[in-house]
Amino acid sequence: TIFALSTNIKSSGSAIAVIRVSGDKTLNVIDEITNGKADGIREKPRQACLNDYVDPKTNELIDKGMTLWFPRPKSYTGEDLCEFHIHGSMAVINKMLSVLGNINDCRLAREGEFTRRALMNGKLHLIQAEGIRDLINARTENQRRRAL
Known about the structure:
The protein has two domains: 2-109, Probable tRNA modification gtpase trme, domain 1 (Gyrase A, domain 2), CATH 3.30.1360.120; 111-148, no CATH class. The protein is 32% helix and 26% strand. The chain contains five helices and six strands. It has a six-stranded mixed β-sheet with strand order 3-4-5-2-1-6. Helix 4 (126-137) runs antiparallel to helix 5. Its main location: mitochondrion. This is tRNA modification GTPase MnmE-like protein.
């Protein structure tokens, strides 16, 4: 199971940050980071649920945020996937990433790994994956249009 910050954050942070998790242990990760209190998440796929995020080792509150659950195969990667929408301060982001990295069988994704998993699971074809890369890297209006 992998995780990564999906939001491009400036050094000063932002209002909101999104962290994605994908893989077989995604529900375990949700349970750990919410201390088993992600009420209704399984019954409400693709709907935002407000949750407290805690460090499972200390029970310390990290943040309050929205959790979205996308069960396989109807997710970007074709795997179980969730998004944690948190406040975008660097302190909150760094704590969440640190805690996720300490959960068993959960590791930081390599660059492009979410898209590679989508490609391998038949959710995208190669041209679409290249288009996503080009769109992410687009700096001009012309580059944005070509990527789409």
